[in-house]
């Protein structure tokens, strides 16, 4: 009987190959030398890995953030608008209360909130999003992550904040607001305060929710109690600072 010789073995990561199974090159050689078709970078399996990478970067960066509140509002609000000043003040108060402030990292209300947080010495988070036109993170972000995918970015807002303060805004703001309300309504999260800042701006929407949505039974009475509506900076801050965060509703495993 012939003794197998150790020297003829080839170790390939976790795999051990005998001489007849030798691949001829090492894995590193093939990685470094390969040049071939590149269309696979535009396929869904590759996108899945990129999506995973966004979650890895987001979770890895924000896991130790501590208490935080997300502030939303129009990307178009100018620096001389009263809502810009209000967002700046809300964020400054949140920072003074030991909270990080999370925004979409863009201009308008996002910039105001990042400015308020950063200038008050707080953590000023910007979760940027790739858009067809380049806007980039505003200069007041001191902890920023850029996302390709809206849904990965939206997970970060909810996962790492203990409440939302929503200032007047358009479709983007409404999307963020209604996502939070849907998560609370469906009990995906509990203890998640949503503050609508700017009573006059929100009154039309709230009236429609009461007089049309509630009337026609598409929402219920308690759904209308999910948010605090205010023009008062202190009230807005107090509503979120007291919250323990997006506690997942209990369910049997
Ligand atoms: C349209 C303009 C800039 C776009 N830049 C944005 N950067 C980051 N996040 C954005 C941007 N635009 C929208 N968002 C997100 O939606 C919310 C604001 O949307 P709205 O439609 O303006 O209300 C905001 O909270 C972001 O998360 C201006 O030149």
What order do the helices and strands come in, and which of them pair?
Elements: E1 10-12, E2 15-17, H1 27-33, H2 44-62, E3 68-72, H3 82-96, E4 100-103, H4 109-119, E5 124-129, E6 143-147, H5 150-160, E7 164-166, H6 171-185, E8 189-190, E9 194-197, H7 199-214, E10 227-230, H8 233-241, E11 247-248
Parallel strand pairs: 3-4, 3-7, 4-5, 5-6, 7-9, 9-10
Antiparallel strand pairs: 1-2, 8-11
Helix pairs in contact: 2-5, 3-4, 3-8
The structure holds the ligand C/C(=C\CNc1ncnc2c1ncn2[C@@H]1O[C@H](COP(=O)(O)O)[C@@H](O)[C@H]1O)CO.
The ligand C/C(=C\CNc1ncnc2c1ncn2[C@@H]1O[C@H](COP(=O)(O)O)[C@@H](O)[C@H]1O)CO binds at residues 72, 74-76, 104-107, 110, 128-129, 131, 135, 169-173, 176.
Molecular structure report:
It catalyses: N(6)-(dimethylallyl)adenosine 5'-phosphate + H2O = N(6)-dimethylallyladenine + D-ribose 5-phosphate; 9-ribosyl-trans-zeatin 5'-phosphate + H2O = trans-zeatin + D-ribose 5-phosphate. It is an enzyme of class 3 (hydrolase). InterPro entries: LOG, LOG_fam, LOG_family_nucleotidases. GO terms for molecular function: hydrolase activity. Residues 17-36 are annotated as: Disordered. By secondary structure, the chain is an alpha/beta fold. It has a single domain, classed as Rossmann fold (3-Layer(aba) Sandwich), CATH 3.40.50.450. The protein is built from eight helices and eleven strands. It has helices at 27-33, 44-62, 82-96, 109-119, 150-160, 171-185, 199-214, 233-241; strands at 10-12, 15-17, 68-72, 100-103, 124-129, 143-147, 164-166, 189-190, 194-197, 227-230, 247-248. The strands form three sheets. The chain has a seven-stranded parallel sheet, with helices on both faces. The chain has a two-stranded antiparallel ribbon with strand order 1-2. β1 and β2 form a beta hairpin. It is elongated, with a radius of gyration of 25 Å. The N and C termini lie far apart (56 Å). Ligand LYK5OOP5 binds at residues 72, 74-76, 104-107, 110, 128-129, 131, 135, 169-173, 176. The ligand C/C(=C\CNc1ncnc2c1ncn2[C@@H]1O[C@H](COP(=O)(O)O)[C@@H](O)[C@H]1O)CO binds next to β5 and α6.
